[in-house]
Amino acid sequence: MVDEPWTSLAHGVACPLDAPRPPTTEYWDYVGALSVSSLYLSRNQTYRGHCQLIFDPRHATRIDQLSAAEWQAMASDLWRVQAAIVGVVRPDHINVESLGNVQPHLHWHLVPRYRHDPRWGAPIWLTSLADMVDTPLAEAERATLIRELRAALDA
Ligand SMILES: [Zn+2]
Question: Which of 7, 36, 57, 60 minimizes the number of CB atoms within 10 Å of its CB?
Fold first, then answer.
């Protein structure tokens, strides 16, 4: 990706992560809404339970663009979501990442990590997106995982 489209996206021009978003895309399925963010289950489940948590109220690219109150609410959402994911998929570890190198709208990847996963001991992102292992779940398994995540969030 050349820089000009990124700069435009960072300024919020036609930002695909601004709310409202479609509940289902080629990248995710909607799981639930929190106080200032929404949770989506990534289509690629190479890391079982991999979710994205996206800031909802407006376009923002970085944490420092939030008010202190927005950040406190966002941090609380992150805490709730991580607890729910860990409770459902019982990983060996979890990575929480705010990158924005492709989509510069404030969002976090919550990536459960497993001792048997393809990149244990290292970040998952060292290759281009196109080179990453893509592991879709069967629809029934996917629906079960979404249901379990929703129940954990509501608990
Ligand atoms: Zn945006």
Answer: 7
The percent of the chain in helix, strand and coil, each rounded to the nearest 5, is 35, 20, 45
What is the C-alpha separation between 76 and 81, in angstroms, rounded? 9
Confidence of residue 3 (pLDDT cuts 50, 70, 90): low
CA 97, distance to chain mean position in Å, is 8
Ligand 1 centroid to residue 135 C-alpha, Å = 27
Q: Are strands 37-42 and 51-55 parallel, antiparallel or unpaired?
A: antiparallel
Nearest to 39 by CA among 54, 26, 27, 56: 54
Instruction: Give the three-class secondary structure for 88.
Output: helix
pLDDT tens-digit map of 100-132: 998 999 999 999 999 999 999 999 987 777 888
What's the gap in Å between 75 CA and the centre of ligand 1? 18
